[in-house]
């Protein structure tokens, strides 16, 4: 006898990053709720401090192209996606008023008030103007500390948003230390993983260049959160290692540390589609997360870490609080020298049986399980 289907949920309105651009945790979660609730996803831009440079002009052109494209509306593959024409900043009163009007004009009418979930505080002027069952803030990072983002504006928006919220979701307890004072009901929702996808890659991956193996691979955003000291120490260690090896950083670049280009055995390659990441993991000798140790990373939970573990390959990462529960499943380094030493050790010996056994906990961390927690928090009275 088949189990009964879950009861339909009220409509859900989400304010977040552009749908489909990068596989964010919110997108992973919402995909698992599409068969239970009518989701409207509103794309929000304007997180960055505007500067006239090639990188920002490229982003502006990409956003213009998205505005010209027809919104995604297929309920089988994605939520209903809205792309309001926004001014790419929220710092001035004029910009916030303009963007608020654009948000309100873009929203449809619902048969009943939706639950509103936002991953960004820039919508602080909308509570009270959008009919809503409740407002929930899903705080993923210390946004104001991100390199290149408009920190003062994001702080002000959070301070304005918090008194208007009904519930809060955080990915790490340390985020509470920098959020405005509050007494909101709070859910700690750590990231999930599609372990089966990463355990069974469909095909082998080859880099676009003739790069000498073995390959030590990082995937994700290449920005100022990466620690050049770790990468320099590892580069030197690989040059002295009899087997050699190459460092591959795969992902979009956002003002990466400048001196990385000096490393002859480090290659910065374009991002690969999410569907191809399991094949990239299968091709790696060691997967790395060489982050700096600073307040931003101390409150961060890297989405890629559980994906790394699911590949079955050795993983070496900087010791961050969010990774500590998995310290028995990977190697966590406190210094650049230790980081390099651990990578060389894993190149020689592979994945220890104890770490392999510790990763048997991964099936309990599925996105489906996380989405069920999210649904209860969003919709339960």
Describe the structure.
By secondary structure, this protein is an alpha/beta fold. It has 2 domains: 12-192 and 366-379, Rossmann fold; 195-363, Glycogen Phosphorylase B (Rossmann fold, 3-Layer(aba) Sandwich). The protein contains 12 helices and 15 strands. The chain has helices at 25-31, 54-68, 93-106, 151-161, 195-199, 228-240, 277-283, 295-298, 304-310, 336-349, 353-358, 367-379, and strands at 12-16, 39-43, 80-82, 115-118, 134-139, 167-170, 186-188, 215-219, 222-223, 246-250, 253-254, 266-269, 286-289, 315-318, 331-333. Strands 3-2-1-4-5-6-7 form a 7-stranded parallel sheet, with helices on one face. It has a 6-stranded parallel sheet with strand order 12-10-8-13-14-15, sandwiched between helices. A two-stranded parallel ribbon has the order 9-11. Strand 5, helix 4 and strand 6 form a beta-alpha-beta unit. Helix 6 (228-240) crosses helix 10 (336-349). It starts with 11 loop residues before the first strand and ends with a helix. GO terms for molecular function: transferase activity. Keywords: Transferase. This is Glycosyltransferase.
């Amino acid at each position: 006898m088949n189990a009964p289907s879950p009861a339909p949920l009220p409509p859900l309105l989400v304010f977040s990053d552009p749908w489909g651009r990068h596989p964010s945790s919110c997108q992973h979660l919402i995909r698992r709720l599409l068969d239970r609730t009518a989701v409207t996803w509103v794309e929000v831009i304007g997180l960055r401090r505007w500067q006239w440079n090639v990188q920002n002009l490229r982003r502006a052109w990409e956003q213009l192209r998205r505005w010209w494209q027809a919104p995604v509306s297929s309920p089988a593959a994605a939520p209903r996606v809205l792309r309001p024409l926004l001014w790419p900043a929220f710092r001035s009163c004029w910009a916030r008023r303009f963007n608020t009007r654009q948000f309100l004009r873009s929203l449809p009418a619902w048969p009943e008030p939706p639950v509103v979930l936002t991953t960004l505080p820039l919508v602080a002027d909308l509570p009270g103007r959008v009919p809503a069952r409740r407002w929930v803030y899903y705080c993923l990072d210390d946004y104001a500390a991100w390199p290149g983002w408009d920190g003062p504006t994001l702080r002000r928006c959070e301070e304005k948003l918090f008194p208007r919220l009904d519930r809060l979701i955080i990915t790490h307890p340390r985020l509470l230390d920098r959020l405005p004072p509050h007494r909101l009901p709070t859910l700690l929702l750590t990231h999930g993983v599609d372990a089966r996808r990463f355990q069974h890659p469909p095909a082998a991956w080859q880099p676009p260049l003739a790069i000498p193996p073995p390959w030590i691979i990082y995937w994700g955003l290449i920005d100022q959160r990466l620690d050049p000291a770790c990468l320099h120490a590892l580069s030197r260690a690989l040059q002295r290692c009899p087997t050699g090896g190459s460092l591959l950083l795969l992902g979009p670049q956002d003002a990466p540390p400048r001196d990385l280009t000096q490393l002859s055995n480090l290659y910065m390659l374009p991002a690969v589609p999410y569907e191809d990441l399991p094949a990239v993991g299968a091709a790696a000798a060691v997967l790395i997360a060489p982050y700096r140790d600073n307040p931003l990373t101390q409150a961060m939970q890297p989405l890629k870490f559980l994906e790394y573990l699911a590949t079955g390959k050795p993983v070496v990462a900087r010791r961050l609080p969010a990774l500590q529960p998995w310290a028995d499943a990977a190697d966590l380094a406190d210094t650049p020298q230790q980081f390099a030493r651990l990578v060389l050790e894993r190149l020689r010996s592979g994945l220890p049986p104890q770490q392999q056994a510790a990763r048997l906990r991964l099936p309990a961390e599925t996105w489906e399980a996380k989405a069920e927690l999210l649904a209860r928090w969003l919709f339960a009275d």
